[in-house]
Design brief:
The chain has 380 residues and is mostly helical. Helices cover 63% and strands 6% of the residues. InterPro entries: FlhB (IPR006136), T3SS_substrate_exporter (IPR006135), T3SS_substrate_exporter_C (IPR029025).
Length: 380
């Protein structure tokens, strides 16, 4: 089994990025046998389709040039005109065949691998001038494959040609006894059918070569596990870079969260391990209290310090603090199951504000057993 330069087997399927890069470099499956068969079949078909017109034009061309009148032979400038006219007739005679062959020669290569123009293929590769590399290519598996294909084509065409000539032996002998015009057209037809059968014989070679080229190209594109990992790192970013980005994102989120603590109506704590900051503002269309900030341990301590500095009410309710912490995301409304418990907390906070403003009596202490649904409870 072939191994990469790093000693690892290429066992992984090529990624989309690897395929795209290979295509940009011109590394796509191509079959010269498919191109040869297509051009040969097209040429034979064109010869059969336009052979009659070609034969008639050739006869007219020979009739024009083999029966020159005496005055034309004696005129110095007339031969150039005859030559130009003969060239035009010859070009028009073979034009349909040439146009068809040009179209086929353009379409056949892109039938396998699609249309591709790669500038890298036009760049000179000085590595190909290395004699050692050239000798290595001469004795490579690919060179052996090409040699076997060439021998197979030779014997295939030889066998088909012998069979065709054997079957057309009587027709070929009959051409000698036919009138000239009929003999020319008949000869074109025999050549056309012979080329068609010989090209058909190459279909077997092409049918074997196309899957082989697809398999060989796919094999070249396969990757080692290390190459897949390296590509993933390049596309997704190195782990240490992603970790640093996540750290910066957390720091930004924490700073934004801490900046929102002074706006909270109440800070509910565990009292030491958890802290959540809530705000309820019905004037802004809030249907339920929002979670402005939450944190544990050091962040919870920092939230309490900021709340104390800005005189935000801090209440201890371990079960409610844990329930809100685990059930609610930042800047989201608390779940419906906690409405009643949070409403009691906010009512208590508003009563404290009224009392401190001298507009009411001191509220009763907040109940410790707030109504928290079992599915929202969290253990410490």
């Amino acid at each position: 089994m072939a191994e990469s330069e790093s000693g690892q087997d290429k066992t992984e399927e090529p990624t989309d990025k690897r395929k795209t890069q290979a295509r940009e470099k011109g590394e796509v499956a191509r079959s010269k046998e498919l191109n040869t068969v297509a051009v040969t079949l097209g040429g034979a078909g064109a010869l059969l389709a336009f052979g009659g017109y070609l034969g008639e034009t050739l006869m007219e061309l020979m009739r024009l040039n083999f029966s020159l009148p005496r005055e034309v032979l004696m005129a110095e400038g007339s031969m150039a005109a005859y030559l130009l006219n003969s060239g035009k007739m010859a070009i028009w005679a073979v034009q349909p065949i040439l146009v068809l062959l040009f179209v086929i020669a353009f379409i056949a290569p892109i039938a396998l691998g699609g249309f591709l123009f790669s500038g890298s293929l036009l760049q000179p590769k000085f590595s190909r001038m290395n004699p050692l590399a050239g000798i290595k290519r001469m004795f490579s598996l690919n060179a052996l494959t090409e040699l076997l294909k060439a021998l197979a084509k030779f014997f295939m065409i030889l066998v088909v040609a012998l069979v065709v000539l054997s079957n057309d032996r009587q027709a070929l002998l009959a051409i000698a006894n036919e009138p000239l015009e009929q003999a020319i057209i008949h000869s074109v037809q025999v050549v056309g059918w012979s080329a068609m059968w010989m090209a058909a014989g190459l279909l077997l070679i092409a049918a074997l070569d196309v899957p082989f080229q697809l398999w060989q190209t796919h094999k070249k594109l396969k990757m080692t596990k290390q190459e897949v990992r390296d590509e993933y790192k390049d596309s997704e970013g190195k782990p240490e870079v992603k970790q640093r980005i996540r750290q910066l994102q957390r720091e930004v989120s924490q700073r934004r969260m801490m900046a929102a603590v002074p706006e909270a109506d109440v800070i509910i704590t565990n009292p030491t391990h958890y802290a959540v900051a809530l705000k309820y503002d019905p004037d802004k269309g809030s249907a339920a209290p929002l979670l402005l900030a939450k944190g544990t341990d050091f962040i919870a301590l920092k939230m309490r310090e900021i709340a104390a500095e800005h005189k935000v009410q801090i209440l201890e309710s371990p079960e409610l603090a844990r329930a809100i912490y685990y059930s609610t995301e930042l800047e989201q409304e608390i779940p419906a199951g906690l409405y009643l418990a949070v409403a009691q907390v906010l009512a208590y906070v508003f009563q404290i504000r009224q009392y401190r403003a001298g507009k009411g009596k001191a509220p009763d202490p907040l109940k410790k057993d707030l109504p928290i649904p079992p599915d929202l409870r969290r253990d410490s």
